[in-house]
């Protein structure tokens, strides 16, 4: 038994590159899989979500305007910093998800590999999803994928790191900015990811992490006129339909939640990249 | 002093100085007397002013009170464009926005005025004909005020001739800071005469006055000289309108009316961008000057981006969900 007093942590939100408390001042207790106290986390309110959308919109021009190569470099740098925090992530995933240390390690490895994999996609999307179209006329006609805009992500509730990375990284790789509502009961890996993002080269506002209840904040994001797409993966099962209906008011792209949280270790393919990309087609007259 | 502009003008033939209203008739009898009066005004407790606005800034204004505040603030906006790149087209589109700030919601009130440079006042006047929205023009070598008096007065007459209903003049901060208060006073009086029927707003440019004591002195000076409004800033200098400055100016207009019976308006300008800021100002007006000032006749916001934020908040109250910048017009 150590003589030291325990340092009880109260984490904050990651919003616009800074770590503010929730505007509401609320916090909640985060426990491990057996119910023991882990830390306090900020419980984000609708106003935090509103501020996060403003931040994400502000960051969109720079992030979407960066070259695909540069975005890849920035995301790869995030993976480097993730690797440096490997041990901390293992601890948090093991405690939060109740995994053995070897399975937690495997989940963290997979999460970092997934991040690197998506970092590699940034400058290949154009070639794979776009290209020159054969048209019947004197035009050079080509299509290219462009980011959708500000994407609200309700992160998976169970897989706190691998699941989070699997939904967040594809949004960023395409050039979108994100407002993420983390797993309610297992938010600590997301909090640490925020610290990683803050100390890597991702511009402030590109990722905003709100710890709290997706059932509370989700409707505000779904209805928000300045959110272009919403990923409902972590939405409460009985509210998904309602959220989809709210999102229709502003014609958002919606990714429906799976019936059951999938096995995130499976190869995702392009299934999570394409929903947040718009195809722009250009017709260029050809002279002689 | 030579005036190349109008060599035949009576070379500042020192007309008898216009007296300020009672009971301050004799304070402008000499430079020394005026300085003694202005420096004899009670000093401003800066720490006290800051803590007062901080406390008032925490007032929670919600639901119906918020809806009222937003509509009141919209009706108080002087929608402003003061750029070198202003074109007639931009002024016309601003005028259209002034008449119908939110085309999607006809219950939105129009703004109080459109504020432009003097040469574009005619375009604004034409675009706003019959709407009741005033045309305000900045004059007197705005924003620096560094020109001879003849040039400044010509600037004012030109703007009035173009149809401006309100003139926003800048005071000569150089003369004020050098302690030549009577020069500043005489200039405001001369500009007021040149305005004719147009209302005169006197810009103190508080960001250059350094202290709150100076803000109080300049406020009194401008009110004694006949200004109909006192305005914080040009918007070209940072800091522009801050809450403590506004507090001091509101105290000044309150005290001035108590002493002379004449009511003067206040216009903070520059740096007010959010609905929250605007509501803080309205709380300040109500608590410091009183509800008599809560009308576009006596309180204005000099702003451009503020209007869009007010409209977004108004849409949020109406629809129940957050709106976005795609749902208001770009100025």
Automatic annotation (TrEMBL), chain A:
Domain of life (superkingdom): Bacteria
InterPro entries: Ald_DH/histidinol_DH (IPR016161), Ald_DH_N (IPR016162), Aldehyde_DH_dom (IPR015590)
Pfam families, sorted: Aldedh (PF00171)
Domain Aldehyde dehydrogenase: residue ranges: 23-254
Single GO MF annotation: oxidoreductase activity
UniProtKB keywords: Oxidoreductase
SUPFAM superfamilies noted in UniProt: ALDH-like
PANTHER family, A to Z: ALDEHYDE DEHYDROGENASE-RELATED
Name of this protein: Aldehyde dehydrogenase family protein
UniProtKB/TrEMBL annotation, chain B:
EC number: 4.1.2.4
GO biological process, one term: deoxyribonucleotide catabolic process
GO cellular component: cytoplasm
GO molecular function terms listed in the Swiss-Prot or TrEMBL record: deoxyribose-phosphate aldolase activity
Protein name according to UniProt: Deoxyribose-phosphate aldolase
Domain of life: Bacteria
Pathway the protein contributes to: Carbohydrate degradation; 2-deoxy-D-ribose 1-phosphate degradation; D-glyceraldehyde 3-phosphate and acetaldehyde from 2-deoxy-alpha-D-ribose 1-phosphate: step 2/2
Family membership noted in the UniProt record: Belongs to the DeoC/FbaB aldolase family. DeoC type 2 subfamily.
A Pfam cross-reference name: DeoC
Keywords associated with the record: Lyase, Schiff base
